[in-house]
TrEMBL record:
Homodimer. It comes from the Bacteria. The lineage of its organism: Bacteria, Pseudomonadati, Bacteroidota, Flavobacteriia, Flavobacteriales. It comes from Soonwooa buanensis. It is found in: Cytoplasm. GO terms for biological process: protoporphyrinogen IX biosynthetic process. Its main location: cytoplasm. This is Glutamate-1-semialdehyde 2,1-aminomutase.
């Protein structure tokens, strides 16, 4: 049996942990079968509890952009650990990473570190509300900005996978301040502004959506969003938890040439440690405690091990002038070659790709918003594809509403292994 030890571990885990997992999508509920329990990771590979290796296309849901356990990052963390794990005081290291990010990301003067993308987005909208004196926000159907109450309305990612995009436990009062628009539909956004004049603090968007599968902004959607926000005195929040330092060192703002008012980060900036952050120009960040009235804090914020892992990761990326070209090229090759094989099989599909993010939608030619993703994901070909790829040693996200993250550790050998698995796919 392929997943014998994982199966036993899962049985045991379910006794003590709800659903046996600490984050729902890990339970493989929508794809079926036993969730694979991993015990180590190096470079392009994960190793499971049964000692099977997998080419990893999740990469911890984005952070492991260099591949797993990069030796330079590992050594930096080990050295840092010798100086203590957490002080709850300011450190020089926090300023070092803050400066690196502020100097390289457009339109931000200051950055505040937190411990997750959820905290980053939750704090960003509080700051936007404090700054504008308005209550409502616009988010897009199928976008995910973490699990804080305001965002669990038509949320993507695991919330969509499990069919509960509107979670019980979110009060009506909170829900009514979150207005939902359709991704890539600027008229819809303009319409919502017309009906809520002077009430909308901010629009929050994944500049490339990764939580309804990978969905790209089309027809100058981001540029138009900026204009609608400006015209209405609302802030534009780019949730760059996935795209930050992945699409480019300056993130989606650099890639698309659109200026955001607040930017949130996570994943890559922590190098695999629990980190998030939010950043903005000075006049907005001045509203934040201790200088301003908008409160936000964290016991482990700016944790030295996490800052060291993040700083070292960012420095490694920055030192390789060809870094993004290489991972983007790998992703392009996967897109073209997988597409070719699926076409040869006569399997209708659409691959969406931007930079080193991509995903496959089956039984469709186009996915530009959540409804189109939904129509594709529920063909169940995805689940079959996922299981067969897994059995052949290729670890894909266990939901059609997730994005593949390609790491710098994926080389020709891993691409060949992946293509061979796709060739073997029977549907
Ligand atoms: N925003 C986006 C765009 C995300 O993809 C995620 C997580 N996948 C989050 C926010 C929340 O981050 P975290 O899981 O670290 O809380």
């Amino acid at each position: 049996m392929l997943y014998q030890r994982s199966s036993a571990l899962f049985d045991e885990a379910q006794k003590y942990i709800p659903g046996g997992v600490n984050s729902p999508v890990r339970a493989f509920k929508s794809v079926g079968g036993v969730p694979v329990f991993m015990k180590s990771a190096k470079g392009a590979y994960l190793t499971d509890a049964d000692d099977r290796n997998y080419v990893d296309y999740i990469n911890s849901w984005g952070p492991a952009i260099l591949g797993h356990t990069h030796p330079v990052v590992l050594e930096a963390i080990q050295k840092q650990a010798e100086h203590g794990f957490s002080y709850g005081t300011p450190t020089e290291l926090e300023t070092e990473i803050a400066k690196l990010i502020v100097d390289n990301v457009p339109n931000i003067d200051q950055i505040r570190m937190v411990s997750s993308g959820t905290e980053a987005c939750m704090s960003a909208i509080r700051l936007a509300r404090g700054f504008t004196g308005r209550d409502k926000i616009i988010k897009f159907d199928g976008c995910y900005h973490g699990h804080s109450d305001s965002f669990l309305i038509k949320a993507g990612s695991g919330a969509a996978t499990f069919g509960n995009p509107n979670s019980p436990g979110v009060t009506k009062g909170t829900a009514q301040d979150t207005l939902i628009a359709t991704y890539n539909d600027i008229e819809n956004v303009a319409d919502i502004f017309r009906h809520n004049q002077g009430e909308i603090a901010a629009v929050i968007v994944e500049p490339v959506a990764g939580n309804m599968g990978c969905v790209l902004p089309e027809n100058n959607f981001l540029q138009n969003l900026k204009k609608v926000c400006q015209d209405n005195g609302a802030l534009l929040i780019f949730d760059e938890v996935m795209t930050g330092f992945r699409l480019a060192f300056g993130g989606a703002q650099e890639t698309f040439g659109v200026d955001a008012d607040i930017v949130t980060f996570g994943k890559v900036i922590g190098g695999g440690m629990p980190v998030g952050a939010f950043a903005a120009r000075q006049e907005i960040m001045d509203y934040l405690a201790p200088n301003g009235p908008v409160y936000q804090a964290g016991t482990l914020s700016g944790n030295p091990l996490a800052m060291r892992a993040g700083l070292t990761t960012l420095e490694l990326i920055k030192s390789d002038k060809d870094f993004y070209n290489k991972i983007n090229k790998t992703t392009e090759t996967l897109d073209f070659e997988i597409g070719k094989i699926l076409n040869e099989k006569g399997l209708k599909h659409r691959i969406n790709r931007k930079g080193s993010m991509m995903s496959i939608f089956f039984e469709t030619n186009k996915v530009s918003n959540f409804q189109e993703a939904y129509d594709s994901v529920y063909t169940c070909i995805f689940n079959n594809f996922f299981q067969q790829m897994l059995a052949n040693g290729i670890y894909l996200p266990p939901s059609g509403y997730e994005t593949w993250f390609i790491s710098a550790a994926i080389q020709d050998a891993e691409i060949d292994k992946t293509l061979e698995a796709v060739r073997r796919f029977e549907f």
